[in-house]
Amino acid sequence: MCGIIGISSNQPVSSDLINSLSKLEYRGYDSAGLAVFSDGNIIERKTQGKLNNLIQRLKNDPIDGHVGIGHTRWATHGIPSEKNAHPHSSSLVSVVHNGIIENAEEIKKDIKSDYNFLSDTDSEVITALLTQNLNKENDYYKAVSLTVQRLEGSYALAIMFKDLKDTIIGAKKGSPLVVGRGEKGSFVGSDTIALSSVATEVCYLEDGDIVIVDNHNIKIFDQQEKSVNRDYVNFSISQDDTSKGTFNHFMEKEIHEQPRSVGDTLRQFIDYDNSIISNPDLKINWQKVNKVHLIACGTAYYSCMIAKYFFEQQSKVPSECDMASEFRYRDPIISKDTLYVFVSQSGETADTLAALNYCNKHNAETLSIVNVVNSSIARESKHIIYTKAGPEIGVASTKAFTAQVITLLSLSIICGSSKDLISNNQNQIMCKSMLTSPKIIEEAIQRSYALKDAAKELIGSKGVMYLGRGTAFPLALEGALKFKEISYIHAEGYPAGEMKHGPLALIEKGLPVVCIVPSGPLFHKTISNIQEVIARGGKILMITDDSSLQSESENIWKIFRLPDVDPILETLIYTIPIQMLAYYTAVELGNDVDQPRNLAKSVTVE
Ligand code: F6R
């Protein structure tokens, strides 16, 4: 969602602002803007659409200075347009905002007689309040403090006052704000990726903090207005992590990174001395865990659905999954012997964070599985495990998903072992098998190049169905989500056994149906379900394995085979072709694969 950047530098900042905004593009946006101090004035440039439009505007009408703020906007209140793009400025102040101001209408009503609103956004009330409070108080810090006290909702802000040269004031509640320092000066930004080309050290602000930065000083004040020190960490994100390298898209690169990201994530669960899956650093009393409740959104939710099978099979612990956006609205009963597990790539998803806060309020035992270090969800959880996927830039989640799956599988084995349901020997066998996963994923990637032709033939389809049973059912849901979000073709995932209870009515001659059917106990049952689809004209793309009994027949459009694997690794391996199929289809359609329309990477609003 929206991204913000603020730079106070010893050098001209326009190109660094643009560079940082380009690193924020991955979050999803539909307009962009910046403002800099130039000749004693704050001058802004804003454009609708992609960053290139802003770059073009700056070429035609250049501005520069040593202090500036920038923004990528993902529309919430008001359509994507130049007028609604940030910064929002008055004669005294210029502001960029990430988050949602829930009481914006009420504030507008109160001050509309004194302030001329120019946009339809909620954010502009911040500019209005700052202007009003500065006129009242004549003190910049006080003006910011009074303003944020009036705001309900979430915000990360970067603010420039016309008469406070060299300085940017930042504030945060509910949306992340990172402060950085480096050779060129001081910085605030929505995430570390935004600061990756300028900062060498960063710290993470707490809710209620206000920060005042200039070229060589950073002062942080907490909610009680006390000056505080937050810990800085050295940080470097390599150019490789934030560039596409030799790939055409970040999504393609991230699919290909999975042998590495799964291997790196798995490594933290390997006890190499004893060749078992274990993690003594995680201080969870597994013997006392009688239930696991998994909560997440989107793709991360599907990894939770897969984990339900893992926990019930490996550790005989009843498991439940909830979509975070629904969880807290049914007043869930929190129980002491349940482990509440929150899964999130970004660690900032508003619904997942709110669900976690609900559990914290009820003193639940919480564990989060998060990819972004020091993100809000990581900081609010009692126990935390980081997936080691590295920065995921493509909006469609790929490598974070497989990193979540291997993490959840490892945890279910640790839980089962702690409960003496898995012997040391069984653990060793599973560990050995899991260590082969990077190699098998690599082979699955190589084989999936063959799906390019199938993807071409999906173009023009009215829709695509994905079917599976067992853990292949959540994979069918993930396949359909990946497909629809980047191809814009309707896709639906369904348990194969449920088709006859309604969705079979959708099947007509030529409708593509992707069937995920590993050899195993559910193979024949799934084949029977597929026959029902074939009988009604469905065009079957069957994803199965080398030893599958299914042979090519006239009734099956295509069979795609993966290497035979240990059943515990199936979900990891079968993920690859469904990612590649979606990717190839979107590329064939010429869609913006990395930033699909209407979507954002880090969903920081409810
Ligand atoms: C789909 C996708 C989304 C995210 C969801 C949760 O490809 O990426 O469905 O999985 O928005 O995001 P995180 O994992 O950041 O909480």
Briefly summarize what is shown.
The chain has 606 residues and is α/β, with parallel strands linked by helices.
Small ligands present: fructose -6-phosphate
Sequence stretches where pLDDT stays below 50 over 5 or more residues: none
Count of helical stretches: 19
Number of domains: 3
- Tertiary shape: globular
Helix and strand composition category = alpha/beta
Nearest-integer average pLDDT: 95
Helix content bin: 25-40%
Strand line-up of the largest beta sheet? 3-2-4-1-10-9-11-15
The third-level CATH topology of the largest domain is: Glutamine Phosphoribosylpyrophosphate, subunit 1, domain 1
Can you describe what's shown?
- The protein is 35% helix and 24% strand.
- It is of the alpha/beta class.
- The protein has three domains: 3-237, Glutamine Phosphoribosylpyrophosphate, subunit 1, domain 1, CATH 3.60.20.10; 248-435, Rossmann fold, CATH 3.40.50; 449-594, Rossmann fold, CATH 3.40.50.10490.
- Strands 3-2-4-1-10-9-11-15 form an eight-stranded antiparallel sheet, covered by helices on one side. The protein has a seven-stranded antiparallel sheet with strand order 5-6-7-8-12-13-14, covered by helices on one side.
- The longest helix has 20 residues, at 399-418.
- The protein starts with a strand and ends in a 17-residue tail after the last helix.
- It binds fructose -6-phosphate.
- The site of fructose -6-phosphate has 14 residues, from helix 9 and helix 17.
- Residues 297-300, 344-346, 349, 352, 396-397, 481, 485, 603 line the site of fructose -6-phosphate (F6R).
